[in-house]
Design brief:
mainly beta, four-stranded antiparallel sheet, globular, single chain, 9 strands, 45% strand
């Protein structure tokens, strides 16, 4: 069984197929641009993204442990208090309504 997928259409489960042909270029699928600032941060991090509506933000430590998660419904800028975070490198992730990571960025506290 084979399937032809246009890359611009989004995610499709291909586990039941033995062959897949993709049309469209990988550049058509663009991850969200995440802009944490200030970076490095001391008291708070603001995460800016034009497509934050309907998603959540997750802050992970270098070991992949979620140290912070919040909803970003209706916001294009989310402020995160860093008082509960140890100094170090973190990964901020934008997560869509289906739980998929749509953007990532590094930030330093």
């Amino acid at each position: 069984m084979s399937l032809t997928v246009n890359a611009a259409c989004g995610l499709i489960d291909l586990s039941g197929y033995t062959t897949a042909n993709f049309t469209g270029s990988p550049s058509e699928i663009k991850p969200a641009e995440v802009k944490p600032y200030p970076n490095p941060a001391s008291n708070q991090i603001q995460i800016s993204n034009q497509s934050l509506t309907g998603v959540s933000i997750r802050i992970l430590d270098v070991h992949g442990k979620t140290d912070y998660q919040c909803s970003a419904l209706g916001s294009q800028i989310v402020s995160i208090n860093t008082d509960g975070l140890s100094n170090g490198l973190y990964l901020s992730e934008i997560i869509d309504a289906e739980g998929m990571v749509t953007g990532k960025s590094k930030c330093i506290v």
